[in-house]
Write a structure and sequence with these properties.
The chain is mainly α. The chain is built from four helices and no strands. Helix 1 runs antiparallel to helix 2, helix 1 runs antiparallel to helix 4 and helix 2 runs antiparallel to helix 3.
């Protein structure tokens, strides 16, 4: 009788622990989703849709740095890759003479492609 009671107690403890791991897993998944949503929202707000050549280069370094930080913080590889692609686009701006209207148009086109890739993985 005593053994049966101990076995029942151990079984109940096992079930409780299994339930705790499910709750922990659910919390982890929720945190990852929140991080993804937050990173995506911030990255989309950083994007220059109608860039001003006078300020684009000035702000490019800060945007590149922040996009890389977001890429490092997000758990999903496809989102991190899209964020890194956007960061690379801002790195390119820093290296070019972006005052030329043709270069601004080319960069804007590439940036919109990077933005579309981010939108797809964030959806």
């Amino acid at each position: 009788m005593k053994r049966l009671g101990i076995a029942a107690l151990l079984a109940a403890a096992g079930l409780a622990l299994a339930g705790c791991s499910e709750v922990t897993n659910a919390v982890d998944q929720t945190n990852k989703a929140a991080t993804k949503v937050s990173a995506c929202a911030e990255a989309l707000s950083l994007a220059d849709l109608n860039p001003d050549p006078a300020t684009l280069q000035e702000r490019a370094a800060d945007k590149e740095k922040r996009l890389r930080e977001l890429a490092n913080s997000v758990g999903e590889q496809n989102v991190a890759t899209a964020l890194t692609g956007m960061a690379d686009s801002y790195l390119q701006v820093q290296k070019e003479n972006i005052q030329d209207a043709g270069k601004v148009a080319d960069w804007t086109k590439r940036n919109l492609e990077q933005l579309e890739a981010l939108r797809k993985v964030c959806a």
